[in-house]
Design goal:
Its EC number is 5.4.99.-. It holds the Pfam family PseudoU_synth_2. The chain is an alpha+beta fold. It has helices at residues 14-21, 26-34, 107-117, 144-155, 227-234, 281-289, and strands at residues 2-4, 38-40, 43-44, 56-59, 77-81, 85-90, 125-126, 135-141, 160-168, 174-178, 181-182, 192-193, 201-209, 213-220, 257-265, 272-276. It is built from six helices and 16 strands.
Length: 300
């Protein structure tokens, strides 16, 4: 990574510049300076070096290739890629990362295979995750820096997270659900709206409805586990096919929830990145059944 120091950054310590201007964690700054991986104008730099206008700061990010994820020849739908991140459209019924019960066939196995085939010296660092039965956009960071920087953007709500859901019943209008979410007990998989839980904010707008189902766009202001599923169920419109927060459906074999769009700034530069994942076929079939239309260009 290369940074050209402007007049605005003159006089700053190197470590403060990297932390507050470029999103490096304190831990990573210590690691790269200790291992002689930072250079100013071609010379090894120290954390307390003072920057001057015109300085060129170069950082060598060395990846640790040790990761127990076997590459598998699984097709992945790449939506966007740059030097720092990979964004893929995860299909429904796919686990994002190996677990005890899902040792193979995961998104991470496919991504590792892609990194190997394209000779990218990366391990799989998931920035966000989706439930097995939720489809849509997942971001994978290619370095420790990218992972920390993207995680910070999510934490500060600088990533716009948009979803599409098909819910039970006729739902109308738009609004915001601002209700806390937590587990009712430590051993519970299910979450619920509960006093004293973590604050959770979901904005919604109905973009089509029939007497039986409605299609809803949602924007997450927070990112709690199962947030959309809990909030929609709480207001009386559980997601179609969501057996945990609603009931089984005979027209879809999963919850009809899709992570449709992510909008954020590139980590290097200020270019805006807009990633969109097409609505999967099983959800499109439901919309067709109920004569509901979804046009991506009208979804703003």
């Amino acid at each position: 990574m290369v940074f050209n120091i402007s007049k605005d950054d003159e006089g700053k310590r190197l470590d403060n510049f990297l932390k507050f201007e470029k999103g490096f964690s304190t831990r990573l700054i210590k690691k790269i300076t200790k291992n002689d991986c930072v250079f100013i104008n071609g010379k090894i730099a120290w954390a307390d070096d003072i920057l001057k206008e015109g300085d060129i700061v170069e950082i060598l990010l060395k990846e640790n290739k040790e990761q127990d994820i076997m590459p598998e020849d699984i097709p992945i739908d790449i939506v966007y890629e740059d030097e720092d991140i990979l964004v893929v459209n995860k299909p429904p019924f796919m686990v994002v990362h190996p677990t005890k019960s899902h040792q193979s066939g995961t998104l991470a196995n496919g991504v590792m295979n892609y990194f190997n085939k394209t000779k990218q010296n990366c391990i799989v660092r998931l920035v966000n995750r989706l439930d097995r039965d939720t489809s849509g956009l997942v971001i994978i960071a290619k370095s420790q820096f990218a992972h920390q920087a993207m995680a910070k953007m999510f934490e500060k709500n600088k990533v716009k997270k948009e979803y599409i859901a098909i819910v039970k019943g006729k739902m109308e209008g738009k609004g915001t659900v601002d209700l806390p979410i937590d587990r009712p007990s430590l051993d519970s998989v299910k979450r619920c709206v509960i006093e004293g839980g973590q604050r959770a904010i979901t904005h919604y707008e109905v973009i089509g409805s029939s007497e039986d189902v409605s299609i809803v766009k949602l924007i997450l202001e927070t990112g709690r586990t199962h947030q959309i599923r809990v909030h929609l169920s709480h207001i009386g419109h559980p997601i179609l096919g969501d057996e945990l927060y609603g009931e089984k459906s005979n027209i879809i074999q999963r919850q009809a929830l899709h992570a449709f769009r992510l909008t954020f700034n590139k980590l290097r530069g200020e270019d805006l990145v807009v990633c969109t994942a097409n609505i999967p076929q099983d959800m499109l079939e439901i919309l067709k059944k109920y004569n509901l239309d979804f046009q991506e260009d009208t979804y703003e």
